[in-house]
């Protein structure tokens, strides 16, 4: 692989997050100032100017960090197979050639499906290293009993999922039952075994950024490998504001433990331009170390299509967005 391609896709194995014993001292005092969050996000707008040759690199990087998702009631074997084909070859060969990175072994970060579709994804991804992520624990509402949640996780792992996206019981956050939430997530983590666990907070259903931050801390203390914003089914899904709050919790947890927890914004990220905004925030808040599929994913069903369209515009010279190379 050429130097140029290597800088686009860099993966590194990060140690699992083993968590810490429950203690409210880590998050008791958190008080997030909403207007400070909004000001910081506003400051991202319109002040980046970046070399044109780096624009495509950002978009290719973004592709490598997509959990290519289908989570619809009408999912079938056929559409999961098509999704997996797309995950294996997310960008047309001729387009990669025109971009000068034809040797790049580009895939999406993972595919994300319901439990019952895992066998079809497994078959369609044979011979690749593309992980299968399964949504579990009564996705999307998370209203199943804890026993059912644990059983569901174990079944998905046995079926071949190597990543499990769990949903938390939002009521525990709303009622400040932090220790109960910790115990629930910890049991889910144990049920995951070697599979990496992403914990969905469903931030659109959490009324304050302070509670989002506290829930993020509880999820990390209980051993989540990633914290994730949303199921994609709430009325408000991933936002830059909530991402800022969660990324800062990840940074503080790293400072405390030396462990890097991953971040996954999900739901409603449909445009290449939006994806780049998330990556700029990530780079500024957590640094280049997090610009890898091991530590950052987009949960998205339609983002890839728009990125491909923008890459087409890029090679025909009509792409106008401007931003810096992700690793620059
Ligand atoms: O986790 C992934 C989300 O469900 C995808 O949401 P989306 O369909 O809005 O991209």
UniProtKB/TrEMBL annotation:
This is Deoxyribose-phosphate aldolase. It comes from the Bacteria. InterPro entries: Aldolase_TIM, DeoC, DeoC/FbaB/LacD_aldolase. It is an enzyme of class 4 (lyase). Belongs to the DeoC/FbaB aldolase family. DeoC type 2 subfamily. Keywords: Lyase, Schiff base. SUPFAM superfamilies: Aldolase. Pathway: Carbohydrate degradation; 2-deoxy-D-ribose 1-phosphate degradation; D-glyceraldehyde 3-phosphate and acetaldehyde from 2-deoxy-alpha-D-ribose 1-phosphate: step 2/2. GO terms for biological process: carbohydrate catabolic process; deoxyribonucleotide catabolic process. PANTHER family: DEOXYRIBOSE-PHOSPHATE ALDOLASE. It catalyses: 2-deoxy-D-ribose 5-phosphate = D-glyceraldehyde 3-phosphate + acetaldehyde. One of its GO terms (cellular component) is cytoplasm. GO terms for molecular function: deoxyribose-phosphate aldolase activity. Its EC number is 4.1.2.4.
């Amino acid at each position: 692989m050429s130097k140029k391609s290597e800088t686009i896709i860099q993966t590194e194995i990060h140690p699992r997050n083993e968590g810490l014993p429950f203690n409210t001292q880590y998050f008791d005092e958190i008080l997030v100032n909403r207007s400070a969050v909004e000001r910081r996000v506003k400051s991202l707008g319109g002040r980046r100017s970046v070399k044109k040759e780096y624009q495509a690199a950002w978009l290719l990087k973004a592709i490598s960090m997509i959990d290519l998702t289908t989570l619809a009631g009408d999912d079938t074997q056929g559409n999961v197979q098509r999704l997996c084909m797309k995950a294996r070859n997310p960008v047309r060969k001729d387009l990669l050639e025109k971009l000068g990175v034809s040797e790049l072994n580009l895939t999406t970060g993972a595919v994300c499906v319901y439990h019952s579709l895992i066998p079809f994804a497994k078959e369609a991804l044979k011979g690749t290293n593309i992980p299968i992520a399964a949504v579990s624990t009564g996705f999307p509402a998370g209203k199943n009993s804890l026993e059912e949640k644990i059983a569901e996780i174990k079944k998905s792992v046995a079926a071949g999922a190597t990543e499990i996206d769990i949903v938390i019981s939002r009521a525990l956050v709303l009622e400040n039952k932090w220790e109960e939430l910790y115990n629930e997530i910890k049991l889910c983590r144990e049920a995951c075994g070697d599979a990496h666990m992403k914990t969905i907070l469903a931030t659109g259903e959490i009324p304050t950024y302070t509670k989002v931050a506290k829930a993020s801390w509880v999820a990390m203390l209980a051993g989540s490998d990633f914290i994730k914003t949303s199921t994609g089914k709430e009325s408000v899904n991933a936002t830059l504001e909530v991402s800022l709050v969660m990324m800062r919790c990840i940074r503080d947890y790293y400072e405390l433990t030396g462990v890097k927890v991953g971040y996954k914004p999900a739901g409603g990220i449909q445009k290449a331009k939006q994806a780049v905004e998330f990556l700029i925030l990530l780079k500024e808040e957590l640094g280049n170390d997090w610009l890898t599929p091991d530590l950052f994913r987009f949960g998205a069903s339609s983002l890839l299509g728009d990125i491909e369209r923008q890459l087409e515009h890029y090679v025909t010279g009509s792409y106008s967005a401007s931003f810096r190379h992700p690793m620059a």
